[in-house]
Specification:
Number of strands: 0
Structural class: mainly alpha
Largest sheet: none
Radius of gyration: 21 Å
Mean pLDDT: 90
Order of helices and strands: HHHHHHH
């Protein structure tokens, strides 16, 4: 029952995100907006409810099964992939490099920010 409560909450956030995107004509996918809303809610609460934790853990444990439809979809378009393998390969390589550089820069900035905020604090009791 706890799993059902958690998955229902996840789907409600997805639905709210989808409805918001359609009403406001926002150019981002509804599930992404719903995920951001859920993230903000969890930040405000300070922790994830047990039901959401249980549902998300179950979904993550079976994550590989969610890639099967995408893999089957790729096989349907195998001829097109074979014809356009060069631009697809370049796009994959460039996007991977850009993602790695962006991740490294964000991690470096975040580390400096967090270390700077901790160094500014004086130890208590002195």
């Amino acid at each position: 029952m706890n799993f059902l409560n958690g998955i229902t909450l996840l789907l409600v956030y997805q639905l709210v995100g989808e409805v918001t995107v359609r009403l406001l004509d926002v150019p981002i996918p509804g599930p992404v907006l719903g995920m951001v809303m859920l993230f903000v809610t969890l930040l405000i609460r300070g922790q994830a409810p047990e039901s959401v934790d249980q549902a998300s853990s179950a979904l993550l444990s079976h994550l590989s099964l969610l890639f099967v439809p995408a893999g089957v979809g790729m096989m349907v378009h195998f001829d097109r992939i074979a014809e356009e393998w060069v631009p697809i390969t370049l796009a994959l390589l460039l996007s991977t490099i850009v993602t790695m550089v962006a991740t490294a820069l964000i991690m470096q900035l975040t580390t400096r920010w967090l270390v700077g905020s901790h160094q500014g604090k004086e130890p208590d009791g002195d």
